[in-house]
Structures are given as C-alpha cells and as structure tokens.
Design a protein that fits this description.
The protein is α/β, with parallel strands linked by helices. 43% of the residues lie in helices and 20% in strands. The structure holds zinc ion.
Length: 411
C-alpha cells in the first residue's frame, strides 16, 4: 500500500536533490524523526532511512534522544550539527559590502562591513569584495576546509549560470564583471551568484518571517528598489533573470529622470538614495530641517536613516518626505498584491527603522488601491533580519538551495 501511494511523488522528484530536501526539513523543524520525514516527503521509510544514515555518517546531522510516541516505540529525533559545515555570504550594492560566515544551522558566526566610494572603479570594487571575504573568514576563525562555498548577492542584472554581473546602473562602468569566477579563483571554493534582492527573499525564507510561507515577496529598498519573489516555495527569476525590477516601474509620468533613461521610476522617488536627494533639494531651497544640525552642516553625511531619525523626532520636511515615500511604496505594493496575490510582503532595507511611520502610510494606500480579494489575505511586515539580510540569504543559497555544492565538497 505504502509503495503504491509514494510512487508518483518519487518519480517526479529529481534523484540528486533528496538529501538536501531531507536536510532542509530537519533545518525547518529543528528536530524531527525519520517517520515524520517520510510522511512529509512521501518517500518510503527505507529510502529515508538510507539517506539519513548517509547524512549521519558524513557528520551533517546527529541523533538527539527520543520524541513523543504516536503509539508504539518513541521515535529518535534528528537535528543538524551546527559545526558540520559553514557558508560564506556576501552582499554588495552602490555604497556598501557586507560579508558573513554562518554555521550549518544558519547562526551568524562573523560579519564584516565594507564601503564602496563613488570614485571606486571596477577593479577596486572587486578587490574590496575579495578583501571583505578574507576578513570575515579570519574573523570567524573557521578553516576554509569547513566552508561549503561562497554565495554572492549581486545588484542589477546578472547571469547566474555564468556567474556574471551584467550591469548595475548605480555603478557606472560596472559591466560584464565575471565576479563568480574572480571569487572562485581567489578562494578555490564553490561560488554561486544571485541577484541580491532575491538573496534577501531567501534570507526571509530560511531564517526570517517567511519560514512557513510559500508565496511571499521581499521588497528591498536601498540605493535601488527591487523584489525577491518566492512562488510556490521557489525563487522566481524570469526568462533572463531580470524579474522583480519594480524600481523602474513608472509612478510619476513627469517625475525625475532615472539612470535607466525613463522618467519618474519608483526608485527615483522612494529609494534610500532618492529620499536623501529629495531632502537635500528642499534644504537647498531654503527650507529648514533638524538634519542640518544632526550632520553638523556636512550634507554629505545625510543618510536615509538620518532622514528617518529626523522624521521620527517631528522634523517637518523629513516627516513629509517619509509620508510621501510610504505612499509611493504603498502604490507599488498595491500593484504587487494585484499581480502576485502573495501571502506575505516583507519590506527590507533602509526604511525598516521608520517602523509604523512608513508602514501605516503603506497600509492606508494599499487599503485604498489594491483589489479586495488579494488584499484581505496579505500581511505586510518589516524585516527583522537587519543589515545582514542580503548576505545571510547569499549564504542560504549555498547551504539550502544547492546540492551541487555538497557533492563537490563532501564526497
Ligand atoms: Zn528607471
């Protein structure tokens, strides 16, 4: 009976992915029995037993005593061994680099933050990325032999199969950079790249609020704006991996010119960079703001976080800009809700510190503009993963999404 029931699912499943699937079930539940794994996967007890024995033998998991019995013998529970392996995750964008080392359960072991300056050329940026990886490995104290690989969250347009960063408007001159190969050659570790807005979604899927959600969208607001879309539990990339470029959605036909050539793109009005530009423009026109005092007259030091801080303390123009930004994002989110009908939308990046100030404006706009049926089921929240979000997701790319890495590292 069992065999007949399990047959169709087994045949549809790709052989190579079974062990990773089992590891991920253990990762999600914390502790789970062989019996429960068989139930969730629809695999036979024998198949699960064999895969579990191999994972025990290779030191990726361990047995941790007995769980509750559902009649009969109490089952032995399995959990991941945190020290079994480690992964490196890197995330960069126009102004910053973040590198992390996480253990096998996804706990943060070490992190390093680097800066990209506007005058940095292609080679300098690549050198800085490589340097950040060296630094985070040193800081973690973990030998590279225990590292499964390096995941890179890359901004702009990418070709993940070739490991190429094709273009990124915010870094002029950054074109066709073979970032995957350059990092792989330096560290001799399996290296995978993914669009950084998607690694942010992966972080939420594996370590954040979307653990048990199969249809979710992460809206990243940083120097640019983009989406990481998870549909039926899988990342959605599009035919040439450019899906999710919501930053270039027109929200104001006559708005400011964007680097893409269009006018009034969402990211020219609501990105971290745009918010800073908008407040500077108003201050330049003579409007007074507490921000001038906060940065001691040095306007170069104005960041989106400082604008938020000023808005929260009641600064008039900062507050207006924060509310307008919430409205622009609300417009975009209403469109996302109508298009994708997700269960969860998580706002991540520069504006998270604004909390309810922006979230309430987003919710009001969504209430006014999104269709009723999808609007009623969606939850809109703020990410709780902090600055590391993109780098954590890049590490998840190695640990949770790619079995190929495993076979290379642990045969
Ligand atoms: Zn644009």
């Amino acid at each position: 009976m069992d065999i007949v029931k399990s047959r169709p699912r087994v045949e549809f499943m790709k052989r190579g992915t079974r062990k990773l699937q089992i590891l991920n079930i253990i990762r999600r539940s914390g502790a789970v029995s062989r019996h429960d794994i068989a139930k969730v996967t629809h695999l036979s007890k024998g198949t699960v037993g064999e895969a579990v024995d191999d994972l025990l033998h290779r030191g990726f998991i361990r047995e941790i005593g007995l769980g509750e019995s559902s009649g009969g013998r109490k089952p032995v529970l399995l959990e991941l061994k945190p020290e079994a392996a480690y992964a490196i995750g890197v995330d960069f964008e126009a102004t910053s680099i973040m590198a992390v080392v996480v253990d096998f359960t996804g706990n943060l072991i070490a992190s390093v933050k680097g800066k990209i300056e506007t005058e940095d050329d292609k080679l300098t940026i690549v050198r800085k990325i490589i340097e950040s990886i060296h630094q985070v490995i040193d800081k973690s104290g973990i030998s590279t032999e225990k590292m499964l690989g390096i995941g890179l969250g890359v901004p702009g347009l990418i070709d993940s199969r070739k490991g190429i960063s094709i273009s990124y408007y915010s870094l002029p001159g950054w074109r066709d950079v073979h970032i995957g190969d350059l990092v792989r050659l330096e560290f001799e570790l399996p290296t995978y790249i993914e669009k950084n807005m998607r690694t942010m979604a992966l972080a939420e899927k594996w370590f954040g609020q979307a653990r048990n959600v199969d249809n979710m969208i992460c809206l990243g607001v940083r120097s640019g704006i983009g989406l990481g879309v998870v549909v039926d539990g899988k990342l959605f990339r599009g035919v040439s991996e450019s899906a999710g470029e919501i930053g270039h959605m027109t929200v104001d036909r006559t708005g400011p010119k964007c680097m893409c050539g269009n006018r009034g793109c969402l990211q020219e009005l609501a990105s971290g960079r745009a918010i800073v530009a908008r407040i500077k423009k108003r201050m330049k026109n003579g409007e007074s703001s507490k921000i001038d005092k906060l940065v001691k007259g040095n306007w170069k030091k104005i960041t989106p976080e400082i604008v938020i801080q000023a808005a929260k303390s009641g600064d008039g123009i900062a507050l207006e800009i924060a509310k307008e930004t919430g409205e622009y994002l609300g417009l975009a989110i209403a469109n996302i809700i109508n298009l994708f009908n997700p269960e969860l939308i998580i706002l991540a990046g520069n504006l998270v510190s604004a909390g309810e100030l922006i979230l309430s404006r987003i919710r009001e706009t969504v209430e006014e503009r999104a269709l009723e049926v999808p609007r009623k089921v969606v939850r809109i929240t703020l990410s709780e993963l902090g600055d590391n979000i993109g780098a954590l997701g890049a590490a998840a790319l190695i640990m949770c999404e790619s079995e190929e890495v495993w076979e290379l590292t642990h045969v």
